[in-house]
Write a structure and sequence with these properties.
The protein is of the alpha/beta class and 593 residues long. 39% of the residues lie in helices and 17% in strands. It has a six-stranded mixed sheet, with helices on both faces. It has a five-stranded mixed sheet with strand order 2-1-3-4-5. A hairpin with a 5-residue loop joins strand 8 and strand 9. Helix 1 runs parallel beside helix 5, helix 5 runs antiparallel to helix 6 and helix 7 packs across helix 22. It is elongated, with a radius of gyration of 31 Å. It starts with a helix and ends with a helix.
Amino acid sequence: MTSTEIDEKFMREALAEARAAAAVGEVPIGAVVVRAGEIVARAHNRRELDQDPSAHAEFAALCAAARSLGRWRLSDCTVYVTLEPCCMCAGLMVNARVGHCVYGAADAKAGALGSLYDLNADSRLNHRFNVTAGVLADECREVLSNYFSGLRGTDGAGCGCGADLDAHAAHAAALAGAGEDAGAAVDFGPACRRPRRVLMAIDSFKGSVSSAQAEAAVAGGVRRVWPDAQVSALPLADGGEGTLDAVAACGGEIVTCEVAGPLGKSVAARMLVDGEHESAVIEMAEAAGIGYSPCTESAALAATTYGVGELMLRAVRAGARTLYIGLGGSATNDGGAGMLQALGACLVDDRGCDIAPGLAGLEHVASIDLAPALRALNGARVVVLSDVENPLVGRRGALAVFGGQKGLPTDDVEALGGYDSWMVGYGHLLDTAIAEARAQGLLRVPEGARTFGSVLGVPGAGAAGGLGAALLALGAELHSGVETVLDLIGFDERVRDVDLVITGEGNMDEQSAAGKAPVGVARRAKRYGKPVVAVVGGRADNLDAVYEQGVDLVLTICRKPMSLEVALDPREAEANLVCAGESVARAYDLGRI
């Protein structure tokens, strides 16, 4: 059975209890408590019969379930009730630590799970639980409406309120949100809901719109449907392009420095310095990004990470005790040798001369001394942001997988093999230098960090043309880019109290499940039971791996047929994203998310 079929099955059991309440003159509300696919307790409203203000259906069912199971914690139980619970009953669910509540009709006057309050998702309370609303809502409303219609046509003798129609009206208002006028029609229609709360965490659509622009456009579409929506936005990144801007939205100062570009020409590179937290965020692409390179073979051999080392040095001198370094979008293949040189490390040939910049210099490196670089870092913690799992060398290494996009001739097996042999020799020298630094007490393994015998095969060492390996040699910690960015921007605190999370990226495929930003958002959001929609420019045919990670709906944004060139135009992209935002909100209202 599907989850919908299961919910409907048990809601029919709750409806049977509601009809049992009507048969004894009570307002027809029923509830059942389910554990492991079995009903462990059932009850219906008995407030008038027992003259007990707590004798609501779900309240009685929860108490019966606790007695049946011999414990008050009901975290493995689901409560099914025909009418949205009031504050009292929702509060009991919090205190009983229930795992899930499913209700039928909304209660516009007293509902505490979405209509007036959201007690199930209030971060100020010590427990939160998931809610599914509207299951067999029409049948649940019909049972209530028929009951009160019957009262208006009789003297009301079977209700427990006698012939006093004012008492009937008060009874209805208290238990089912009916109007105060006994002669007026009882309305169990759509609830008067509070404003929807939406969290945007959308990655940039590379070559088209930034993270912030995408979020603004989607928010505009959402407000077409929910004009009063409370929309908050967290610019998103995964350690690559946009990381600085994403983290800067939460504090710190963007500082621009003149450093050496990948091909020697000076470039203006930004970094984020946060004096309060004594930290800095560096995108290596700011100093050595692929946008600075013509991506020819000669450029791929010469490109250096020297400017990245300059940024690190300036950050430490500015007081940073923790350096976060994003490794996306590099133009380099130098194994981080230039970065080490900028920090003061000695990389020399067999004549004692400094090696040339870039991958070409690795052909002649004969000795590496990390001590000056480690002293320059002055004990600063280095955290690498990358979701690349490639090792330094081999068929999955930095050159074989990423060299082609930077200009290396990947179709020339002999040439590429020669370049990779240079990288192998360099990696062995890094291993020797690491051992020497440890012997001198200059390099300690961070607590909880992975240990390794050689940098050559460490997953992630091949990131940014091998810059990952050089940072490992300095004692860096390799962390998931998206997970670290989510921590830095305070995602968990922002997601607790929202109704819906919207994420997205330019293209989504099964590789997105391996660590891209939108799937990282979905995994985090699911910890709090939040629905997640991903708006994307394009998608693969099969996204099972993405859905398994927590994305509920992937929505492509193109509103009409158009070429890729047109779709990438920022104005067209923003128009598409506005329409996508509208579609997300309407899908949510239809219960499709």
